Q: What sequence folds into this?
């Protein structure tokens, strides 16, 4: 008779095998999608160079099409990157970085990208040193700001608040918008136990951010405050003085 | 009577007909003479070396697809032999895997897919300028 421990071991094995299949599938899909996307994107670029298409209406349509092709390119790139990191085919480029400074850079970039929104940085005066891959954590923050903005009304206000809570550095992103689901911790403490799929949260931005943060031993918390505010909180372990 | 200067001949190698059509169109618009070849056809005729020897392109745009390492090593072997003197620009859907290897090889550049047409043409022009100045 199978013991409970044996049963849970087999379940864990099946989950691990399922995750490997899923990651391999994403890798193949990313490769296969890049080829037709290269053709589509390239042809649009060539069309954009044609003087016959200088009519403003044509130009506007082409610009939208090129923008969407670039967006598809970014989505495929992010999926591929996260999958490779999770499977160990790529590694994080870790160093000691200041999460407050990264939040400031992400806020500035978001303000440039969404000029109709007021992105306000509430700077934290102390150091918020974390061990992180600078590029990827900044990317995660950009995804989260994009998510908050997507769910906030136009001409709204997005607050970016770096800070610390105990032994963790955090960044809270707040936007005015519709309520989201009840507060819930969505990312695990370690990459090994991070959710394999994107089913735990709606939205691509959150999925990528969740995965990148979990790979750093951090977590992402969604705080839904009914009818008023959407808030997303990123938490990463602070570097201890011995590690510096 | 004036003669127009010869357009540089660029051999593009790829598994995908759509990519070859795109590269040919982009090269033509940029003033190059495109020569395109499906990878399977090239391999059935003995690989890059006999093809390049026969066509004598001024530059080569060669796609390295999966299995990346196997395909890269085959190309690297041809480049290292010195028998192909035209500068080679590598294209790939996974440039990160190849970046360090390309840097340490005679290849003239690496362009990830999907690429900006301008980036590909600019890499080609740089490679041709470099090869002429040697």
A:
């Amino acid at each position: 008779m199978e013991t409970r421990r044996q049963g849970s071991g087999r379940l864990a094995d099946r989950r691990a095998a399922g995750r490997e299949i899923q990651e391999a599938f994403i890798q193949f899909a990313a490769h296969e999608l890049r080829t037709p996307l290269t053709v589509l994107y390239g042809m649009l670029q060539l069309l954009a160079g044609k003087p016959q298409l200088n009519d403003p209406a044509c130009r506007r349509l082409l610009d939208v099409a090129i923008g969407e092709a670039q967006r598809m390119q970014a989505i495929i790139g992010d999926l591929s990157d996260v999958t490779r990191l999770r499977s160990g085919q790529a590694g994080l480029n870790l160093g000691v970085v200041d999460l407050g400074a990264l939040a400031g850079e992400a806020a500035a970039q978001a303000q440039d990208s969404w000029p109709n929104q007021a992105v306000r940085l509430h700077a934290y005066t102390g150091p918020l040193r974390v061990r992180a891959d600078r590029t990827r954590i900044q990317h995660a923050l950009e995804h989260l700001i994009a998510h908050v903005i997507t769910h906030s009304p136009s001409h709204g206000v997005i607050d970016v608040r770096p800070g610390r809570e105990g032994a963790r550095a955090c960044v809270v992103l707040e936007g005015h918008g519709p309520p989201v689901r009840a507060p819930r911790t969505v990312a695990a403490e370690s990459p090994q136990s991070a959710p394999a799929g994107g089913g735990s949260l709606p939205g691509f931005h959150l999925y990528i951010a969740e995965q990148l943060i979990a790979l750093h031993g951090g977590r992402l918390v969604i705080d839904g405050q009914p009818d008023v505010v959407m808030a997303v909180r990123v938490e990463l372990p602070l570097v201890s003085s011995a590690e510096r | 009577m004036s003669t127009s200067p010869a357009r540089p001949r660029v051999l593009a190698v790829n598994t995908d007909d759509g990519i070859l059509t795109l590269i040919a169109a982009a090269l033509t618009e940029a003033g190059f003479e495109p020569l395109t070849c499906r990878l399977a056809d090239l391999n059935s005729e003995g690989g890059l070396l006999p093809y390049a020897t026969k066509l004598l392109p001024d530059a080569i745009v060669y796609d390295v697809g999966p299995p990346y390492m196997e395909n890269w090593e085959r190309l690297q072997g041809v480049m290292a032999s010195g028998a192909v003197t035209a500068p080679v620009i590598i294209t790939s859907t996974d440039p990160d895997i190849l970046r360090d290897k390309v840097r340490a090889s005679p290849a003239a550049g690496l362009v990830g897919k999907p690429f900006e047409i301008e980036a590909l043409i600019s890499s080609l022009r740089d490679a041709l300028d470099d090869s002429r100045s040697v």
Summary: The helical segments of chain B are 17-29, 39-44, 48-55, 68-81, 95-103, 117-133. The first helix of chain B runs from residue 17 to 29. Strands of chain B lie at 9-14, 33-38, 59-63, 88-92, 109-112. Residues 16-133 of chain B form a domain with the Rossmann fold fold (CATH 3.40.50.2300).
